Amino acid sequence: MVVKKFVGYSHNAVLERIKKEIGKDAVILYSSYKKAPGLLRFFIKSRYEIIAGRDVSSCQQTRNQEVKPKSSDLTDIQFKLDELTKYMKSSKSNTNNRYYNSFKQYFSSDIAGLYAEKFDLEDEKESFSKVFDHVTSRIRCSDGIEFANGEPTRVALVGPTGVGKTTTIAKLMSVYTYKGKKVSVLSNDNYRIAAYEQLKRICDLVGTEMRKVVRPEDIQTELSSLKTSDLILMDTAGRSQQSSSKLTELLKILEAFNPHEIHLVVSATTESSTIYNVIENFKGCRFTKVILTKMDETVKPGNLMDIFESSEVDLSFITKGQKIPQDIEIADSERVASLMLKREVVHV
Ligand SMILES: Nc1nc2c(ncn2[C@@H]2O[C@H](COP(=O)(O)OP(=O)(O)OP(=O)(O)O)[C@@H](O)[C@H]2O)c(=O)[nH]1
Ligand SMILES: [Mg+2]
Questions:
Q1: Is there a contact between 50 and 14 (Cβ–Cβ < 8 Å)?
Q2: Which residues sit with their C-beta closer than 6 Å to ligand 1?
Q3: pLDDT in tens, 230-281
Q4: Is 263 in contact with 289 (CB distance < 8 Å)?
Q5: For residue 235, how far is its CA from the centre of ligand 1 (angstroms)?
Q6: What residues pack around ion ligand 2 (CB closer than 5 A)?
Q7: Which of 145, 169, 239, 285 has the highest local Cβ count within 10 Å?
């Protein structure tokens, strides 16, 4: 019995190779299509695996002849079958790996499978520690806002609806004011009047200048009157990443504001495939950093590793509650990794 495994990226190409190498009497013993799961498909190619065999002895017999396999043939066939069984067991997926279930408590099944295979060490603690180091290295953080020299630093927050942009603007405005910076706020959210008024009230309380800008052409006038500010934060209306007309409207506002930094705000409670979609569709806005909000509301923050493993994003802040200003932190890789792995309770 000849048994061989064939792997390739096209089903037909694999079958062609089998026919060529084993002949047209080849029997398919096992066939599988290994689709890279979820977001992993962006960096692992899906493939076909086929195990084919041919019984050499049968080809040498005529139909009427009684076939009496030699004992050495039987041993050989048994050996090949054992090998096949072993292969099928191991190829089920890396979900059989010893730490898969432990990692799955913290990460999505894709990532748990990836880490279970990559960090399969004898000692479980050691394995977890390697995962922690790896996760820390994958989460890239920038130091909040980087201030420009000699002019007010202009920062805009963009993102889908309801992710916490206005609340984060209020937090940033308060935090940087307490740090001694002169902060001003421009609001381009012309849809939610109540939200505007709420932000205005907070600005009045903290003593921050707040202006409303409706049209892109109004922005220059406002900017010239805010020349003495250290930081100008711009709040924008939430836009669906699916609406290209709304995104074009946003681009015009951003072009007029000409920000030093654009922070894309995403909620940690959003499914990672949707966050991925948001990141892709907002790329046109040329955002430079990402703010992760609602970390207090997510049960499994480690699900976000789907994003950090497949996209190169710089985190600037994380937010973890509705309280202004205390529920915001400058993003730190180790802190985010420990939130993911130790399931540290976020105090609200
Ligand atoms: N739990 C929790 N809630 C938050 C956080 N940040 C914001 N929120 C809440 O999320 C809701 C929406 O917040 P907004 O700041 O209005 O969101 P937005 O992105 O400005 O919304 P639009 O302007 O409509 O796009 C409010 O109820 C906030 O209190 C957070 O870190 N944790
Ligand atoms: Mg808002």
A1: yes
A2: 161-167, 189, 192, 195, 237-238, 293-294, 296-297, 319-322, 327
A3: 999 999 988 776 677 778 889 999 999 999 999 999 999 999 889 988 998 8
A4: yes
A5: 12
A6: 165-166, 189, 195
A7: 169
